[in-house]
Specification:
Elements (H helix, E strand, L loop, with lengths): L1 E5 L4 H16 L3 E7 L3 H6 L4 E4 L4 H10 L5 H32 L3 E5 L4 H9 L3 E4 L6 H19 L6 H8 L2 E3 L3 H4 L12 E3 L22 E5 L13 H8 L6 E5 L16 E4 L4 H5 L2 E6 L3 H9 L4 E3 L5 H12 L3 E3 L7 H6 L1 H6 L1 H15 L4 H12 L1
Parallel strand pairs: 1-2, 1-4, 2-3, 4-5, 5-6, 6-7, 8-9, 8-11, 9-10, 11-12, 12-13
Helix pairs in contact: 1-16, 3-4, 4-5, 4-6, 6-7
């Protein structure tokens, strides 16, 4: 079987797709990844052939992103979903994705929540398609409600009839890496949805890469990460220094990762308890961490939960980060604060509380057990193969 995975150029979006792509490849199926030209290195680094499509025009993205700091948080997030994901990104990708689908003729298309052009291409070609959710279940209806006219505009550009894109979106099976206890923390009885399929990614061997020596080795390790995007967005880049300063007096060893677009030297002199890297294998850090301070990105949030590490969430720039933080707090695996970089100090102030109270770590381990109790992503292959028939 030929499987085409489609993603935007975002590690947090590609991450949830990867375990399903690998499961299909391990089962002997042919897998390719459609992604922007700029994402070629990440795709090839993951071990998959790349089917490139155009990056969104910078001038169009710049106009949208430049307006975000002037808007209320939710309105800014809605604009990104509608104007960037459903219109600018998708329209830039559409022609190439339609060409790829017509030329390579995949039997199945797996797309992540923010990648819409492959949905239009799949509908145009009559190819079965599946949605890999990049967060909690509630973002699925939220994205659908916000995209509205932009989604139908995309469908018209692909030659589809009015309403076809909305209907296709609503009918898609959805794959998730989130256990029921985290997705619906207030429900006593699990929800029943045949179109929402939950799996877990078998954990790879933890990297043996040893952390550098700094600070007092008897103090707990705090892992601080705001993902790979924050450093490239000027309104949010200040979060790094603010976190270091806010944690400077905590009896802990602080490891901050800033992403490959940020030069750690630009942060200035570091507090004695801190060490900064552009990147470090997350599993290796979390194996030793006592707590994490993060932005609520899906990969970092789920990484800490899978490792049984409690966390404090400071959502920086999207509503799904707010949702993820709310769910972490609802299951007792950590705390969350008001969104925005101005809340970094407030979040850092909660770290000693999370370290001192063992109930947060116990709740995080309970979620970790629920994650490993899900069927393996290898089992998703048979489920989705049946979809293709």
């Amino acid at each position: 079987m030929r499987v085409l995975c489609a993603t935007t150029a975002n590690d947090g979006h590609f991450g949830p797709v990867l375990p399903f792509a690998r499961a299909f490849a391990d089962a002997g199926h042919e897998v390719r990844v459609a992604a922007p030209v700029s994402y070629a290195r990440t795709v090839s680094g993951a071990g998959f052939p790349h089917e490139p499509f155009a990056d969104a025009p910078r001038e169009l993205l710049g106009a949208v992103m430049g307006s975000l700091p002037t808007l209320p948080f939710e309105e800014a997030d809605n604009r990104v979903i509608r104007e960037v994901f459903a219109r600018i990104d998708a329209q830039a990708a559409l022609a190439s994705l339609m060409e790829t689908v017509g030329r390579w003729r995949p039997d199945l298309i797996l797309r992540e929540s923010a990648e819409l052009a492959s949905l239009a291409a799949a509908e145009r070609a009559g190819v079965p398609h599946v949605h890999v959710c990049i967060g909690m279940h509630e973002i699925v209806p939220r994205f659908a409600a916000v995209m509205g006219d932009a989604l139908e505009e995309l469908g018209r550009l692909a030659g589809l009839v009015d309403g076809q894109m909305s209907s296709a979106l609503a009918a898609e099976p959805v794959l998730s890496l989130v256990p029921e206890v985290l997705d619906h923390p207030t429900q006593r009885v699990p929800s029943a949805s045949e179109d929402f399929l939950r799996f877990h990614e078998p954990r790879a061997a933890v990297s043996a890469q040893r952390l550098p020596d700094w600070g007092d080795p008897d103090f707990p390790l705090i892992y601080v990460t705001f993902g790979s995007v924050a450093g490239s967005l000027p309104p949010f880049a200040s979060a790094f220094r603010r976190a270091l300063d806010a944690l400077a007096d905590v009896d802990a060893r602080v490891l901050l990762t800033v992403g490959r677009r940020v030069d750690p030297a630009g942060l200035g002199p570091l507090p004695p308890n801190a060490h900064v890297e552009q990147w470090w294998p997350q599993d290796a850090v979390l194996r030793q961490a006592g707590a994490m301070l993060g932005h609520g990105g899906f990969g970092t949030t789920m990484g800490a939960l899978a490792a049984g590490v409690p966390q404090v969430v400071v959502p920086l720039f999207t509503s799904d980060q707010v949702v993820n933080g709310d769910h972490v707090a609802a299951v007792g695996a950590g705390l969350t604060v008001e969104p925005g970089p101005s809340s970094v100090e407030l979040a850092a102030a909660q770290i000693p509380r999370v370290l001192a109270d063992p109930t947060y770590a116990r709740s995080a381990r309970r979620v970790a057990a629920a994650i490993t109790g899900l069927p393996s992503t290898a089992e998703a292959v048979d489920t989705l193969s049946a979809l293709v028939g």
